[in-house]
Amino acid sequence: MKTDRPRVMAAARPDAMPLPIRQDVHAFTKPEVFDRWSDTAAGVRALTVGDNVITMFDVIGEDYWSGGGVTAKKVASQLKAIGDRPVEVQINSPGGDMFEGIAIFNVLREHPQDITVKVMGMAASAASIIAMAGDHVEMGAASFLMIHNCWVLAIGNRHDMRETAEWLEPFDQAMVDLYAARTSQKPADIAKWMDAETYMSGSQAVERGFADALLASDQITTDEKAQSADRNINELRAMELQLVSAGMSRSAARARINKIKGTPGAAPNDPTPGAGEDDWSGIADLIATLRTS
């Protein structure tokens, strides 16, 4: 669609972002974001992967349910293996731990050579922070980039809630500053987009300066096997967060889900009944109950 507004050109990689010193607070992706990723981006991959490519087709941070996840430690190791060469980062992630995303951003921005980021399906929440580390950012026309305020789960009285809100505010401002430095958009506009939890299509991201160009459609494919696996694991992640949001601890929520599903990541030769198998019976009913409660 033709527009009279000039496209905003993206700027260079911004400076490093601050990391929290508290270890008792973790930022998450909301369950609804996992749902949208499952519906629109699960299984989307690149057609080709070179020896200088880092793929981020998972949640940000260590993932209990898959045994995987994208971490700063893993990315640093991959960069070391690639060496002093240009790097391509391929992203299709619903996000995850925002603070781990900041750490990964900081690791990438220290790389001495150019970094090209390609958003294959979605770069939501913490993954959108990582995308800003690219010297050149490309997005699929049907891909999405989502930005929002830091989302955490907290329990306590009004004093605890006020303390948590005050503690989070500088990190939301740091994200505003990051996006503004990358896009040259007004910080006030970016803050409004974050407040509204804004999804941008590839063309919108390019227009606003979050990306530089659209990816050619022949660079992207959908792996049906990966799509099925992504969606199954994603249901467990979303369910865990919904149970925690209802007041359960993470360990209690995981134990409840494991009673239905079986042990995640169990070896195929584990003699425990059901170990190494994905038993999804009962999962759909529990999800439906949680979403209507």
Automatic annotation (TrEMBL):
* Keyword check for NADP: no
Q: Which organism is it from?
A: Ancylobacter novellus (strain ATCC 8093 / DSM 506 / JCM 20403 / CCM 1077 / IAM 12100 / NBRC 12443 / NCIMB 10456) (Starkeya novella)
Q: Where is this region: Disordered?
A: 259-280
> What InterPro entries does the record tag this protein with?
ClpP, ClpP/crotonase-like_dom_sf, ClpP/TepA
Give a yes or no for keyword Hydrolase in this entry: yes
Q: Which CDD domains match?
A: S14_ClpP_1
Name listed for the protein in its UniProt record: ATP-dependent Clp protease proteolytic subunit
Question: Which GO biological-process labels does this protein carry?
Answer: protein quality control for misfolded or incompletely synthesized proteins
Provide the alphabetized UniProt keywords. Cytoplasm, Hydrolase, Protease, Serine protease
State one molecular function term (GO).
ATPase binding
